[in-house]
Automatic annotation (TrEMBL):
Protein keywords: Membrane, Transmembrane, Transmembrane helix
Source species: Adonisia turfae CCMR0082
Superkingdom of origin organism: Bacteria
Protein name: Reverse transcriptase domain-containing protein
TM annotation in the entry: 9-31
Keyword Ion transport found: no
Any matching Pfam family: RVT_1
InterPro entries in UniProt: DNA/RNA_pol_sf (IPR043502), GrpII_Intron_Splice-Mob/Def (IPR051083), RT_dom (IPR000477)
Domain Reverse transcriptase: 1-147
N-terminal signal peptide: none
Length: 216
């Protein structure tokens, strides 16, 4: 989200009462396109992977890390963006993660109905374990951060992943400088979304400009 969008999102946490956030079960879906487009995409699809014992030809799906993946995903869900824009409620999406904020249950239900209709038309579905519909005061995480009225922090699972990564690097014998580089880059990402926090979790403390961290 851009700075203005982020500020708007934070302010709306104080004024909106209900939210719906979700992501898709899978971002793999059938697409019908003209032959020239299919031929172009085919160059990205035809590849092989080394499993250790043999080479396996891959003829379906985009390679991990391929720049086409986020672009095609973003374009594929544009009908959902257009539908939500027509409703007039606050809606923001990053790839297959999105959040909706509304003042009333009625408006939220209307938005959820619209989302379900668009996803059905696109032949994709929400992840049942990563979908939340309810009051904002219960809090919710989105893109690694934890949001609730008057509080924006880092989601607990985000911190846990970082600590797990550090533990694995240490067990692999990675030198201290590399580990510190990873933590510093992670910390820069945290500050980029919050403007600084004091984070203390499982014996790890990182000092920033504010004292906020969330649980998810």
């Amino acid at each position: 989200m851009e700075t203005l969008q982020t500020q708007t999102f934070y302010l709306l946490l104080f004024t909106k009462l209900f939210t719906c956030y979700s992501l898709l079960v899978t971002f793999h879906f059938p697409i019908t396109h003209p032959s020239k487009v299919l031929a172009l995409v085919g160059f990205y699809l035809r590849r092989f992977v080394d499993t250790g014992n043999e080479y396996v030809d891959i003829v379906r799906g985009i390679s991990l890390g391929c720049p086409l993946s986020p672009l095609m995903g973003a374009l594929y869900l544009k009908p959902l963006d257009d539908r939500m824009a027509a409703l007039g409620c606050f809606y923001v999406r990053f790839m297959d993660d999105w959040v909706v904020l509304a003042e009333t249950r009625w408006k939220l239900r209307k938005a959820v109905k619209a989302i379900n209709e668009e996803l059905a038309a696109l032949r994709v579905e929400k992840h049942p374990d990563k979908t939340f519909i309810g009051r904002i005061d219960k809090g919710f995480d989105f893109l690694g951060y934890w949001f609730s009225p008057g509080r924006v922090g880092v989601a607990k699972k985000t911190v846990d992943r970082m600590l797990d990564k550090v533990s694995r690097l240490y067990e692999q014998g990675v030198d201290r400088i590399c580990i510190e580089t990873y933590v510093n880059r992670w910390w820069q990402w945290v500050r980029g979304g919050m403007g600084g926090v004091l984070l203390s979790w499982s014996g790890v403390s990182l000092l920033g400009d504010a004292v906020r961290y969330g649980e998810a």
